[in-house]
Amino acid sequence: MKDLRTSPWIYLKRKAHMEHITFRPFPVRNESFDGTGKPYRGGDYGKEVIMGTYNLSSILYVHFVLESTALPVLVISVSIISAFWLGRTSGLVDETGNPTGGLFGTAVATMGMLSTAAYVLTMDMFGPIADNAGGIVEMSQQPESVREITDILDAVGNTTKAITKGFAIGSAALASFLLFSAYMDEVAAFAQVSFEQVDIAILEVFVGGLLGSMLIFLFSAWACAAVGHTAQEVVNEVRRQFIERPGIMDYSEKPDYGRCVAIVASASLREMIKPGALAIFTPIVVGFVFKLLGRLTGHPLLGAKVVASMLMFATVSGILIALFLNTAGGAWDNAKKYIETGALGGKGSDFHKAAITGDTVGDPFKDTAGPSLHVLIKMLATITLVMAPIFL
User: Which sequence ranges form a coiled-coil region, renumbered to this chain (predicted)?
Assistant: First the structure.
């Protein structure tokens, strides 16, 4: 019987376990504050975030959020490279003797990371539950001491949500690498030519990369705009009810909650049509246009190469922007809660007013645009893989 200790499968098993180790530090920079609302790193970074909420253009706050992308990207890079080379050196070969374990090792690493799905889902559910508990406490007019407890739980929930979003963007990076390799293999199989490299020195391919990066920024902008437009509709509805039902202010009349819920529900579907269409049709249109251009210029694979470049640049830009948005939103939210504990003047102070403004900006960052980019990255890879034949 073959000794399993020398089998190539032992390399892949080690890699699957390694994912649990390498992705542990992944969300550290997303944890701007701990569950009590106090600065997480001895006060320095906490003060910078607070000052950033007081002055939204503060270079200290921008420095903190931009710097937060460094460690996760390093962890992702090390994980992908180590997964590929552990699989490649495992001894798995094809019929001709060429090593084939690289991509399989990356796939095993991805599954190893996703094996923590139950733990990640549990942390992700904690945030909305704690947030809704705070809303119920306010609506039921509970004592202030109860609200203080739910605020602490809400701050913890923001941190756990930041951690789960870190796992989401990490899995999106690994999955996109696999789908990108599958796309290149599919193009090579259909075109009957080797397709192993994407040369960005080619003008059209470089333009495809620019379009991919632009897609991420435009999608994020439209997602944030959708939240802003809907929020304004809700504000107008609340103002209308205050005018028509003045008893709401002294609790002698009940507000029409159903109307606000209907506005949010319908707008969430209507406003996201444009970003969704952008994500679906952009790779198809780009691939088809450059396919025609390649046919005119004598480059039959130009459309496929441009789409590959667009996917590559969109994945890289999407990872960085998602990390930025998730960290910025969570930090703004917890900074507000920290001030509401009595720090920097507490509720009603200028710091608190600025923190509310920051939280208003941070909510679409961390709850809409940031999580949407995780889906966008994987959806782009899937669409390009499915539509590869029309690019040839």
Answer: none
